[in-house]
Design a protein that fits this description.
Blueprint (H helix, E strand, L loop, with lengths): L3 H15 L8 H8 L3 H13 L3 E4 L5 E4 L8 H8 L24 H18 L6
Antiparallel strand pairs: 1-2
Length: about 130
């Protein structure tokens, strides 16, 4: 399930993509414009900066802007930056998790196919398409 944090992150990238020609956007303005609690937004932005989706610049004329072009940021990028497990179909799909039943589980192979199709679709949705 997509968390509230991931939902807010999507809204942030979407807003920055739609306003990229206007320059940097202050965190306070973004919080107000997108109706996101300021402290929560700062936490989200920090993760997005670490994932190299957003650039944060301090000082006069500073603010937030996308780190890449809108067409180079996908929905999968944003979701993985905020909550990589949020779009997993089942616990056995989590990376690094070894399922004890994987040797005989007939459904896990089907989940793997569905999981890859989901990621493929999420990767195909970029922020220049909104």
């Amino acid at each position: 399930m997509i968390t509230r944090e991931a939902d807010y992150a999507i809204r942030v990238v979407l807003y920055l993509a739609q306003h990229s020609d206007e320059g940097a956007v202050s965190t306070a303005d973004l919080a107000e414009e997108m109706d996101i609690p300021y402290r929560f937004l700062r936490k989200i932005v920090r993760r997005m900066v670490e994932a190299e989706l957003v650039v944060s610049q301090r000082g006069q004329g500073g603010g937030l802007r996308l780190a890449r072009k809108e067409g180079d940021i996908s929905l999968a990028d944003v979701l993985n930056a905020i909550d990589p497990s949020g779009v997993k179909l089942n616990l056995c799909m989590l990376e690094g998790e070894e399922c004890q039943r994987s040797k005989f589980c007939v459904i896990s192979k089907k989940f793997e196919v569905l999981q890859e199709e989901l990621y493929e679709k999420l990767r195909s949705i970029t922020f220049d398409k909104f």
